[in-house]
Amino acid sequence: MAKRMALVTASYDKDFDRCRLLCETLDRYVTGFETHYILVAHRDVALFKQLASPNRIIVDERDLLPRWLWSMPDPKTWGKRQIWVSPFTKPLYGWHVQQLRRIAIAEHVDVDGFLFCDSDVAFLREFSADQLWQGDDIRLLRYDQAMLNPPTPPHRNWSDNAARIMGIKEHGQHDYIANVVSWRRDAVLAMCRHIEEQNGRSWVKVLGQARDYSECILYGQYVDEIEKGRGHFHVDWSICHVYWFGPAPDQAKFDAFMRDMRPDQVAIGLQSFMNMDSSTVKRIVGL
C-alpha cells in the first residue's frame, strides 16, 4: 500500500521569491504526495497566500505553536528583525521558530511521512515521494561519524544539546542536517512525547529554553539512539545537491557545481544567505 506523504516548507517574507521558485519546480517535477504545507509567521500569511492552490496550504504559526509564544520587533535591530518571546523560553529568532513549526506540523497533519524542503531548494528532475520508502521504512539521511569532524562548530553543540534534551548518555556521532529530509510522522510525535517525559514540561518549552538546537539532529538522534533505527533505512547522501558556502556562484562556478551533481540527485540548493534573487537562480539553472 502506498504511503501517504506531505511536503513541508517553513519560510518567511525575505525568502518569498525563492519559495515561489520551489513551488514552481515542485509542481513541475514532484509527485507522490497529497499536500504541500508552507509554514509561516502570522504577519507573512497574506504574502504567502499568493502561492496557495488546491494542494498547497499556507499555515499560520499561530495554528501550530502555543499562544504564550509570540513575536515582536527586535529592539536590538530597530525592528528590522522579529524576535519570539515568552515567559518560558529564551528569546528566539526566526530560524529557531521555523524548526518548531516543522516539528509541530506532525500534530496537525495525518499522513505517514513528511518530506521537508527548504525555501532555497529547486527541483530539476522528476521525483516521486514514494521513492523515500522501502516497504514500511522511510529514508533517513545520516552522515556517519561526521561529529568527529563537524562541518561547522554549531553542529557539535546542537548534537550535544540533543543528547542532553533526550537523556542520551553517549554524545551523538552522526550528522543529519540537510535542506531536504524525510521523517515519519509517528516518530516525530513519539520524539515529542519522549522529550516531555525526560524534561517534565512541553517540548516547545524545552527547545525554547535550550535555544541552540537542530530539528534534524534531534530527530536523527531520537530515531537512532532511542528507537534504534526502527522504521527507517539509512543513506549517506542527499537527494539535493547543495552549494553551502562562499559568495554567489557565477556561471562558470555554477557549471562546475552542476558537474558534481550525482545522477540520482533531483534537486539543488543555493543557500539564501548568498542573496541570489530568484531570477538569477532561474537564469543559471535554465528555467
UniProtKB/TrEMBL annotation:
InterPro entries according to UniProt: DUF6492
Listed Pfam families: DUF6492
Protein name: Glycosyl transferase
